[in-house]
Amino acid sequence: MGAEGALSRLTAAAHNGQLDMVCTELGVRVLTVFGSAARGQTSPRDLDVAVLYQPRGVHDDLRTLERLSELAGTDRVDLLILDRASPTARRNAVVPAVPLFESEPGAFASFQMAAIGEYLETGWLRDLDLELLRG
Question: Is the peptide bond prior to 96 cis by the omega test (within 30 degrees of 0)?
Fold first, then answer.
């Protein structure tokens, strides 16, 4: 199944409550789809999914990937763990994005604002890295 069909299946799972049950079981706080499938680009190769875990608990990334792949009906799911991602990756995972799960109302918006703020605040570090690479 292609990424477009996988996104449709994951969206349907969000609407019928299956995704809520899986995310709660896995300790997910926020789940978004981002990348080419979320932007509606033609023929995306994979489905980019980002998760932010609940602050407490032990989280099994492989189990998360397995359960999301089952719901999406494809093994072409790329999983980004927002808890450990760089500011650029965090920002790219939430702008633009299709939020499909949040453990409580406003969780996605709160994380989105924090990710954008962190990205803007660390811009000077990325600029410095580029300057140092140029020599």
Answer: yes
Mean pLDDT of each 10-residue bin along the chain, 135 residues long: 84 97 98 90 86 92 97 95 96 94 97 96 91 91
Q: What is the DSSP letter of 60?
A: -
Q: Cα dist. 105→7, 20, 127 in Å?
A: 22, 13, 35
- Give helix 107-121 / helix 123-134 axis angle, nearest 10°: 40
pLDDT score of 135:
85
Beta strands in the chain (DSSP E): 28-34, 47-53, 77-81, 98-102
Query: What SS3 class is residue 120?
Result: helix
Going from the C-alpha of 43 to that of each of 6, 22, 99, 128, the distances in angstroms are 12, 27, 21, 36
pTM of the model: 0.90
Query: In terms of CATH architecture, what is 3-133?
Result: 2-Layer Sandwich (3.30)
